[in-house]
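Practice set, problem 2.
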Amino acid sequence: MKLQTRHLLGLEGMSREDLTLILDTAVSFKEVLERPIKKVPPLQGKTIVNLFFESSTRTRISFELAERRLSADVVNFAAAGSSVSKGETLKDTARNIEAMKIDMVVIRHASPGAAHFLSRVVKANVINAGDGAHEHPTQGLLDMFTLREKFGRLEGIRVCIVGDILHSRVARSNIHGLRAMGAEVSVCGPATLIPRGIEQLGVKVYHRLEDVIPHTDVLNVLRIQLERQESGFFPSLREYHRYFGVTKERVAQAGHAITIMHPGPINRDVELSADLADGEHSVILEQVTNGVAVRMAVLYLLGSR
């Protein structure tokens, strides 16, 4: 089977068949990561450039590991110190890189739509590693993979995304992907951090954790970006933690086990208490491991078209 698309720009509108193919393929690559020799040859001879216009640690390292595990030649590009700092446009940067005969481009950019724009001006396969507050498709996929691994399915799983939904590309990719696979998705956070009209995406909206916790199987807790407090989206970190911090006491009110997720990095004891982050129901470290397997699957499927 092959993906129905040449690029991975977002999970919005992606078919259930394509999503399932990526998740199924990731199972095989996770087995590869358990071997003593973790390298396989599918992308030998392919050249991939990681085009990061925003700072990143986890995503960039995860993609680079995935690329090298598949035997690709890897070029890392950072905007700082490059011609971008001298005024070069994204279009010129991309075309110059493609002139070097690049096969695939992984891009992270602060502007929503940057990956879509890039896919229209280069011949290489484009993978979106996060574009502004739009989407982060491989994070959505690794979250879905982690849940399917734990529950054996995605159909009917009740997932609540907690925190800054307004500015979160992770939330959008999770909503699109999980909904396509039959999961029930809700969001919870301060009214100032919930986008207007988000109900149109098929999610339920809550403004109190106590109202949603009894009716959920999974809490995917988003990082609070500290600059949001300075921008007036909520009064203080103490106030946020008081009303929306995911704590052991709150989760205990559910009366059943709740799986804890977080895309990282965690502000411990702000959006998520340390004991839950490290607790028996946390799958946060599994998300990191699964990120490499999922990105290997995406790279392999796009690179073998």
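Problem 2, part (b): a different protein.
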Amino acid sequence: MADDNLTGENFKGDELKSENFKFELQATCPVTGARAGIFHTPHGIVETPRFMPVGTLANVKTVTPDQLQATGAQMVLSNTYHLHLQPGEDLVQRAGGLHKFMGWSGPMLTDSGGFQVFSLSEMRSISDEGVTFRSPRDGSVINLTPERSIQIQNAIGADVIMAFDECAPPGVGREVVENALVRTTEWLKRCVSAHGRPQDQALFGIVQGGEFLDLRSESARQLVELNLPGYAIGGVSVGEAPEVIDQVVQHTAPLLPPDKIRYLMGVGTHREMARAIAAGIDVFDCVIPTRLARHGNAIVNGERWNLKNARFREDFTPLDETCDCYTCKNFSRAYIGHLLRSQELLAYTLLSIHNITALVRFTQEIRRSILNGTFATDFAAWIKPVEG
């Protein structure tokens, strides 16, 4: 059980403050809550709003760090759970930390592993102390507590690390979500206590509460009291209807401090990002661009195109004539379709480069419109309410 003395008063996040992590608010849309800002980290800045590619196992699938940088990506994610299983945080630490290990010099974030553990519903057991589960690799028993998650992330060495939380699955009853919220807050306090590198790693808390807006309000209130360097909204995009996700984000984002960066976890479609930005969200992550690429799909103006379709067989135009990525400047739809039908690995690289560029570029364009004061009109079609 968590120590009864772990109260919010004891764990105000003042000891987590660092001059290395600042969120500089540059502009706010006068019509919506959209923000443009700069998040400062030890490995560089993140100009927000910004899409962040996912590099689960210390690589963004099929692309090199140089190719990734050319997409406009500034901050990249890796996964604590997967890196703990393979190759292990000790090896990453001996290699000089995650940045050096994977050859990426920009800002990085690691999630806590909580979502992955809780998705193993038939392989794990949960208590107030933490989670026990069997490794899907070798069947060994692993105990993951808030303290252990932070220790692993401290060893891995990303700029931003996430608190260990309980992500209740969609569709469960209120009591289950309430219990998860209590654990999330208590575990966050333990994460704060365990955090050994507050000057060079920013610890973010995660707002939970499922689709219950009053619970989201309570979770946000409890987390804000701890005065953390940044805040995330979790437990969305895990199976809910789009209108539910939209409602939760619209309700929760304004409850978070205006002088701290706000992160919406697991979201990456054009409409979801535009609507969330209008609510005041700053950064996003999602596996969509590389996952779609591995299935032969390109993201073009927010649509998904299957390049194996017959209509592209003799189409010698770029994927997107307005896109300046390496793929669009050098290759045709017909060529990429040929590679896919031939099962050539180059197809996945070319599509990943384009898809990541498309999502980063979309958020860059939104950023420019916020700075210019034209967001509400320029992106009116994207920020229309989600229909149920």
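Answer key, part (b): The longest strand covers residues 22-28. Residues 346-372 form the longest helix (27 residues).
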